[in-house]
Structure formats: C-alpha cells, structure tokens
Write a structure and sequence with these properties.
By secondary structure, the protein is an alpha+beta fold. Helices cover about 25% and strands about 45% of the residues. The protein contains three helices and six strands, in the order H-H-E-E-H-E-E-E-E.
Length: about 140
C-alpha cells in the first residue's frame, strides 16, 4: 500500500499503474474520502469513496472477465499546483490489450482532476471525465481530433 503521494506526479503514476494492474485498493488510495466524480460512464455522479470504489471494482471486474488489460496514456497533460491545491487536465487514452499483447481498441476521454494536499499527501478531491457529443448523432466522440 501507499504511504502517501508527496508529488502530484505520484498520483498520476499511481492511476496509470493501478488501472494496468486492475488493483482497486491501489487505485482508490489516491482519492479523498469525500471524492466527487463526474463520470461519462454509467452513473452521472459518484459522491464519496465507497460509491467510487464500488464503481471502480465493477470496471476492473469487467476487464478481468473480458481478459483485457488497459494501458493509460495522458496526452496534452497540464499540471498547475501551489502549496495545497493542484489542478490536472489532459486527454486520457485507454488502450485495451488481450493476453497476447494485441491491441483491441482505444478510447480517449477528456479528464480533469482537482487535488488537495491532506497530511502532506496529495489526494484527488474531484474528477471529471467528458466527451464531446456529436450534434448529428447525439453520441460521444471518443477520438482525438
């Protein structure tokens, strides 16, 4: 387990590693107990770590059942931080690979993270993922333009 995230970059690396390893406990260590997530999948919003952990557990279980691993790539990453607050935004690509290492698919979402330093450790207090919507189809656009 993690003893704390002393750098904002530690939070980013934990996110990428925990998704790849499909490790729910590792994943949620970077989140504050009062996390608020605006998600573009399933539920509109998750309030509190227990609801978020439940959603992440379902996500990782689905990946395990499908037999895929996800690699996370952050594009156009911007990090703004001061002594106690940090703001991260990027385009996050999630690439699914099968057991043979074959890339099956990729989606890209826009992500924003708000972080706060608690007891000398960075914690995500707000996360927002989004997609632009096609005006013609009403469906999300998953590819970078």
């Amino acid at each position: 387990m993690n003893d704390g995230f002393t750098k904002v970059q530690d939070v980013i690396e934990n996110y990428k590693t925990a998704v790849y390893e499909q490790d729910v406990e590792k994943f949620v260590t970077a989140y504050a107990t009062n996390i608020q997530v605006y998600d573009c999948w399933e539920d509109w919003e998750y309030k509190g770590i227990s609801k978020w952990k439940e959603a992440v557990n379902g996500w990782f279980n689905h990946l395990k059942e499908e037999g895929v691993q996800l690699k996370v790539e952050l594009n156009d990453l911007v990090v703004e931080e001061n002594v106690g607050l940090a703001f991260i935004y990027c385009n996050m690509s999630l690439m699914a690979y099968n057991g043979s290492g074959e890339k099956l698919r990729q989606i890209t979402n826009r992500f924003t993270f708000g972080l706060k330093k608690e007891n000398n450790s960075w914690k995500i207090i707000h996360q927002h993922s989004s997609l632009p919507i096609s005006m013609e189809t009403g469906k999300g656009i998953f590819n970078l333009k």
